[in-house]
Amino acid sequence: MRPGAGEAGPGTTGGAAMDVPIQPIWAARRRRNQLANAEERAAFLFMSPWFIGLIFFLVVPLVYATWISLTDEQLLRVGDFVGLDNYATVLTNDDSFWTSMRVTLSWVVMTTPLFMTAGLGVALLLNQKLPGMNVFRTILYIPAVLSGVAVAILWFVLLNGEFGAVNQLLRAIGIANPPYWFEDPTWAMPALAIVGLWGIGGNAVIYLAGLQNIPPHLYEAASIDGAGDWAKFRQITLPMLSPTLFFILINSLVGAILVFPATVFVISGGTFRGGPDDSLLFAMYYIYRKVFIEGLMGYGTAVAWLLTLAGCVVVFVAFRLERRFVYYETQ
User: Fold this and answer.
1) Of 39, 45, 127, 331, which sits with the fewest C-beta atoms within 10 Å of its C-beta?
2) What string of DSSP letters covers 89-108?
């Protein structure tokens, strides 16, 4: 019997839909996969210069440095494989290495909180809406972009024990025997910290950006509730600024561990003595002296790897403590 007008025959879908072909789902998925693969190939093509630079300027030097640290290579002589002898000598029979690590640790402990606190104080001042503040911001940032050697010579003259302007001022206000700064092992590092304070404009600018990202309505609500300036700073500014504080903390720690001040080179007369009685013999300064003055590339590279390991431990501990002190708005 023939199917009626309202009935669908075998192999049909009924009504007007019987003439429309059904596109296989797998074909659409294949086209999407082809587009995704093309986008991935284009992305890797554009990223390839970065990957090439990463391999040739980071991975290859790290592998080569690891190999050199296991040899007795010198600047003008290819070395032989000595295994872990360099590391053993550094750790057990090198007093200068431990002096450099002690000096570097003292610098980290002294300058990291000092520079962070001073930078935050300056940023709070720069965040005020006062006349001429833009000019003051520019003046404050200028030392951060000056040449390190020029700054070193300037402060070396200012802190001269006999004729420096700083000691002349101290004598004028009644201090008969001011310190001899870079000539005194006790005062050499504080003097270098004073030089570092002169260039805190870089951190202050970062702090300022963080301060200006704090929503003003939080301070308005706190004022309505009767909070004072100290309460606002402790309950609003510090928590909201904690990501910026953590960023500057990591940068400050790494910078302090890898410090190679031009001031030390200037006051040492280019001899790499590390200041009076090696009071400024930083680890990076010691590595430079071993590799480029004494020519001991293998030995100096071993010292560099030990310093890198110490820096990684410090940064790892800082990141482990991050969750306790850093507040993010998404939390």
Assistant:
1) 331
2) HHHHH-HHHHHHHHHHHHHH
Percentage helix, strand, coil, to 5, in the chain? 70, 0, 25
Flag whether the pTM goes above 0.70.
yes
CA distance 243 to 246: 5
* 104 touches 323 (CB < 8 A): no
Start-to-end CA distance of the chain, whole Å, equals 72
Separation of alpha carbons 65 and 180, rounded Å: 40
- For 228, the token pair is 């004072």
Domain 85-325: give its CATH code.
Answer: 1.10.3720.10
Is 196 in a helix, a strand, or coil? helix
Domain boundaries, the chain: 23-69, 85-325
Q: Please give the Cα distance from 93 to 116 (Å, whole number).
A: 36
Question: 249-281, pLDDT tens digit by residue?
Answer: 999 999 999 888 777 877 776 666 788 888 889
Query: Residue 222 in contact with residue 232, Cβ under 8 Å?
Result: yes
Map residue 296 onto helix, strand or coil.
Answer: coil
What is the C-alpha separation between 269 and 288, in angstroms, rounded? 15
275 phi and psi angles, rounded to 5 deg: 80, 180
What does R_g of the chain's alpha carbons equal in angstroms? 32
Q: At CB < 8 A and 24+ separation, what contacts does 78-87 make?
A: 79/297, 79/298, 82/298, 86/298, 86/299, 86/301, 86/302, 87/302, 87/305, 87/306
